[in-house]
Design a protein that fits this description.
647 residues; mainly beta; five-stranded mixed β-sheet; disordered N terminus; Immunoglobulin-like; single chain
């Protein structure tokens, strides 16, 4: 049928070519006079005219059926597009062009095929060693299906297989396929499975005409040959350890699951590692342990019976190493298991005296050392006997001494501008060579090498210390002085390993600007009132002491707040007066001479009145001087405020 169509088209085209040549109107079609279009794809037919600037075009099928496409004309070119291509497009298409009274016509044959995808391989299930499997190869949506050729084979053996139709048919498109059954072996691992499909239509131009798919075989193995190895053996003593290792063959490699069977209950899951280690075994750990090897294709199981025997054991607490402070007490307890009435004894590793008292009761023995001294620094052994069984365990007793915080001492009070020596001592330290001391003043870190203080030594306990010298300034007021001691013995467990003492600095300022005066004057008449006042500016506030020099020595005067009143001066009040202002920072002395003149034996009434008036004024002035002195310490003075305070 295709051959008849082709002959008719060729004859018609030949007549058209002769006609067109005679009239000088020419027509060309493309891409050629015959094309192969894939069903579901798109196809484009073109018609081009020469010899006319504005031709008119028309398209039809030779059978006058619908075009099933879209026409687009522009100038001397017309295009017929079929998208998507279907069975209705399998025709001989004619393009006719007219220019005035001239007409030309030419045809294109559209032949259809369908070969859209590579073959598809499906396997009925995973490839498991020794288990038959069905392999199917399908080639979807083929046209013409009767021309399809399929081959399916496994590398190393070529199995031609008959094809079969599949129910997946769409109009005249068919899915063709074939299948094979084989039993996987280990030799199949990594080999290829190939399906090749061909559509060998030589008289049609399309690519590809051959498609192939290859799949690499992965053969799986159900777990098998599961074995368990045990170290040291399937019978162990209580407290010992046992290691069980499980191995199994399989692909993919199986996972290992350990469990322990329980009476009247589900198995107890233990581990998902190949190796199961049980430490500190107890009697109740005896039983059946199960190893199960699993992959997604199956499982394999192996069991082992473990027996735990109860041994004679000894435990010491605290242990195996204990740090004890010299002077404290320590109790070591030895507990025996595996025997109801053991014989227990204590000794040191070098067989020296144990330096304590042992008390045995039942399966326990307690060694008490109180107080602990350097003679107790040993490795102690507890020995337990039960029949012909004998076990021994030891504990190391290590000693230290770090009982108190550091002690800060100064060579004297802190006086502004006067060097002072600061000493920091750490008493009764052991081992003293491990002690670290730091001494610093806030704002400046002074690290000083420790030195031995031998005057406070007791046996092997030593008082270690450091010292520093500095000159106090006003900036030091209120700052801290810190001493830190460390006993960093990492291999010994005790607290604290660090102690610290902090002291706030109080800087003293020696008395200064001390003044001594007499009011109203240092020269008065017999019977006058005189006030002697002493003031000083200092920190802390000074102690004021007034004295009068006499032939018998200095006589200290009662002078509250540094003021001494003489209400009625006598000749014997004359002489040298001395004021001493002192605090922790030092002292300052001032002196004056009071002269008392003798009053004549006669006087007038006017003079008597004046004298009485002066007797009232002088005490008032003395009060002013008193409040002025207090204001001098406070930094200010107000007569009004002073008087108000008396109201």
């Amino acid at each position: 049928m295709c051959g008849q169509k082709l002959g008719t088209v060729l004859a018609t085209n030949l007549l058209w070519m002769v006609f067109a040549a005679s009239e000088d109107l020419k027509i060309e079609v493309g891409p050629s006079f015959k094309i192969a279009a894939q069903i579901g794809g798109s196809a484009k037919l073109t018609c081009t005219v020469t010899g006319c600037e504005a031709p008119t075009f028309s398209w039809r099928t030779q059978m006058d059926s619908p075009l099933w496409g879209k026409i687009h004309t522009e100038g001397t070119k017309s295009t017929l597009t079929m998208d998507p291509v279907g069975f209705q497009n399998e025709h001989s298409y004619l393009c006719m062009a007219a220019c005035g009274s001239k007409k030309v016509e030419k045809g294109i044959l559209v032949e259809l095929y369908s070969f859209p995808r590579d073959p598809e391989i499906e396997i009925s299930g995973p490839l498991i060693l020794g288990k038959p499997v069905t392999v199917t190869c399908t080639v979807p949506k083929i046209y013409p299906p009767e021309r399809l050729e399929i081959e399916l084979w496994k590398e190393g053996s070529h199995h031609p297989v008959e094809s079969y139709n599949v129910e997946d048919a769409e109009a005249k498109l068919e899915t063709k396929g074939l299948k094979m059954v084989f039993t996987p072996t280990m030799e199949d691992m990594g080999k290829s499975l190939t399906c090749e499909a061909r559509l060998p239509i030589d008289d049609m131009e399309f690519e590809p005409k051959e498609r192939r798919i290859t799949q690499t075989l992965q053969v799986n193995i159900v777990p098998k040959n599961t074995v368990i190895s045990i170290t040291p053996s399937d019978t162990v003593q209580e407290g010992d350890s046992v290691t069980m290792t499980c191995s199994s063959e399989g692909l993919p490699p199986p996972r290992i699951f350990w469990s322990k069977e329980q009476e009247n209950d589900d198995p107890l899951p233990l581990s998902e590692n190949a190796t199961l280690t049980l430490v500190g075994m107890r009697k109740e750990d005896s039983g059946t342990y199960v190893c199960e090897a699993k992959n997604q294709f199956g499982k394999s199981r192996k069991e082992v019976e473990i027996t735990v025997a109860k041994p004679l054991t000894v435990e010491i607490s605290p242990g195996p190493k204990v740090a004890a402070q010299i002077g404290d007490s320590l109790a070591l307890t030895c507990t025996t298991m595996g025997c109801d009435a053991p014989s227990i004894s204590w000794r040191t590793q070098i067989d020296s005296p144990i330096g304590g008292k042992a008390h045995n009761e039942g399966t326990k023995s307690t060694l008490i050392m109180n107080p602990i001294g350097l003679e107790n620094e040993h490795f102690y052994l507890c020995t337990a006997s039960c029949g012909d069984k004998k076990v021994e365990k030891g504990v190391q007793v290590e000693l230290y001494s770090f009982p108190r915080d550091p002690e800060i001492e100064m060579s004297g009070p802190l006086i502004l501008g006067k060097p002072v020596t600061v000493t920091c001592k750490v008493p009764k330290v052991y081992p003293s060579e491990r002690l670290e001391i730091e001494l610093w003043k806030e704002g400046s870190h002074h690290l000083v090498e420790p030195y031995d203080i031998v005057e406070d030594a007791e046996g092997n306990l030593e008082t270690k210390g450091v010292k520093m010298i500095f000159t106090p300034t006003m900036e030091d007021m209120g700052k801290s002085l810190t001493c830190e001691a460390k006993l960093p013995i990492d291999e010994m467990e005790f607290e604290p390993k660090e102690r610290r003492t902090t002291q706030i600095l109080q800087v003293n300022i020696p008395p200064k600007d001390t003044s001594l005066l007499a009011f109203p004057s240092g020269s008065v008449k017999e019977g006058d009132s005189v006030t002697i006042s002493c003031t000083s500016a200092d920190i802390p506030k000074s102690q004021i002491i007034l004295r009068k020099k006499t032939e018998m020595g200095d006589r200290e005067l009662e002078s509250p707040d540094g003021i001494y009143y003489i209400h009625t001066a006598q000749l014997e009040d004359a002489g040298v007066y001395e004021c001493e202002s002192k605090n922790e920072g030092g002292s300052e002395v001032r002196s004056l001479t009071l002269d008392v003149k003798e009053i004549p034996k006669y006087f007038s009434p006017q003079l008597l009145a004046l004298y009485c008036l002066s007797s009232l004024i002088i005490p008032a002035v003395g009060m002013v001087i008193y409040f002025a002195r207090k204001a001098n310490h406070k930094g200010s003075y107000s007569l009004v405020d002073a008087l108000k305070s008396k109201v």
